[in-house]
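@here heads up, posting the sequence + SMILES for the zinc ion run so it's all in one place. Ping me if the SMILES looks off, I pulled it from an old spreadsheet.
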Amino acid sequence: MQTNLTQDGEKPKRKAIGDKLRFEVFKRDQFKCQYCGKASPDVILHVDHINPVSKGGDNDILNLITSCQDCNSGKSDRLLSDTTTLDKQRKMLEELDERRKQLQMMLDWREELKGFDNEVAQSVADYFEQHIGGAATVNDVGVKSINKWLKRFEVSELLQAIDDLNPIYTKDKNLDASAMFENIPKVANFNRKGDAEKTACYIRGILRNRISYVDYQKSIAWLITALNSGVDEEELKELAKTVKNWTQFREAMEDILNG
Ligand SMILES: [Zn+2]
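bot reply: prediction finished. Complex structure tokens:
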């Protein structure tokens, strides 16, 4: 029985498959014959109709499949015995579509997050204006800085830093609000340090204000060691308040640490 005729008896028109479509089919099928698995360039690949043109199959990408010469000629006008290949294609296309959608969702979500980050930064800026800025307002550059700080610190740490700066600013109205603003990450960083380190920084500050030369790294290392080994913090403060120069401080610290 003739099989290459449609029911109304007319021979179906075969439309040529353009290069672009062929390429899409090859790409989707990873340049492999979907029947036997042989790949380009070992075999010459063709684009085959799953549902033959003679049976009404069209050039929709879902009806096209990559086939090698042998498989293409052997299959001729027969329909695939099962639909697994077609199902597989549909599934792949659906997955691709789903991946595109999810990518778009992810991009949207990132935009949303960015918007949210800005809201958070803006609320930190508001908090600063209320507590320190006075008449000063945090501009866009300031909000950008806060956004940068928020990569290192929690919101609560920045708010705490502003709280800590507040009494200093309130005490001395001559202080520049923008200098206060720049101190926010420094204070937040300071707050993170352990107690011994904070106390050591404080004591070194006393020393620095009193004598002309201080070895920053050595003094902090000695002070932390002393505090961690149980030396009374008041004793160290008293020392920092009374030594006349770096040499005196160094000798006293050596005594404390060795004895
Ligand atoms: Zn093949």
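MO: The pocket of zinc ion is lined by residues 33, 35-36, 38, 67-68, 70-71 (CB under 6 Å).
MO: One more: Confidence is low (pLDDT under 50) at residues 1-9.
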